[in-house]
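explain this chain.
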Amino acid sequence: MFEFDLLATSGRARAGRFSTPHGDLLTPVFAPVGTAATVKALTPAHLHELGAQLVLSNTYHLYLRPGDELVRDLGGLHHFMQWPGPILTDSGGFQVFSLSDTRKIDDDGVTFKSHLDGSLHRFTPERSIAIQENLGADVIMAFDECPPPLDRAYNEVALRRTHAWAERCVAAKTRADQALFGIVQGGVFADLRAESARFLVGLDLPGYAIGGLAVGESKAEMHAALDVVEPLLPTHKPRYLMGVGSPEDLVNGVARGVDIFDCVLPTRLARNSAALTRSGRLNMSNAAYARDPGPIEPGCTCYACRNFSRAYVRHLMRSGEILGAVLLTIHNVHLLLTMMREMRQAIFEDRFAAYTEAFLSAWSKA
């Protein structure tokens, strides 16, 4: 049911096909984030037109509202949000540790207060799997602890806990139509990253995620962690870098053997007047665009750039019009999805190094 075929390589970059019950993912692939069963400012029709293959939804948020059992009773996430393609849900672990100001962690699980109303809740590995089974995504995540990346002592404790929780998640899983990925942790510490990768590979899971990055460490430290982990992961299983999605990070991640990415960045930036381009970010509220008749990005073929001017988009954002966020979201997501297709083609043609050099050179001049 879940198969990963490695079809081409160019250096360490990989192009493959990951088969799921709701369709094949052509990798490398970027997943727009639909935290609450919706990608903000986009309909499923928009996502289809943009060429999105995979959407991520969030276990923590959907558990709190509207409730995972309600989603289950209404046909699961695919039916609930009317997205027919593959869906990935995270375990809720990152949100438990990042959104809850008061939480108590022990070897069994985490007790936390809802960020919505302060009510008390508890997640264990078994509970996380049960919630994700109710939601019904194609790919689900093992419950893990995401520690501060630079704290060695904390990472050592959290790593033992994460590994024990991964084993419990494997034992708790009951649905054959869901692929459970383990999450490699270890902060910026090479030996801990290697230890985590080796342990999780020993569980023979359908795929492996790399977590705990893009959370405060430097770009160089992120790349170093990927360089440690990549050769330790099996070539015939997909690799997923969690929460990473800026254009330069996508290119650098693919260059280091990553297959799957997700990030809120393109949608969050759009709601804050920022456009992603191949040469950097633009603040579309800037007065410089007040009379600019050109598109958001010259040469872009997205709906927003084909039809509307920078002046119009700036007017919408300055006026607080919802359409402004819609158009910028379309543009930002289009860019990242287009880049993934370009990188896949470059891998097949064994010119990925040249693609990387050209892209990063233009980006660095922004």
Observations:
- DSSP finds 15 helices and 16 strands in the chain.
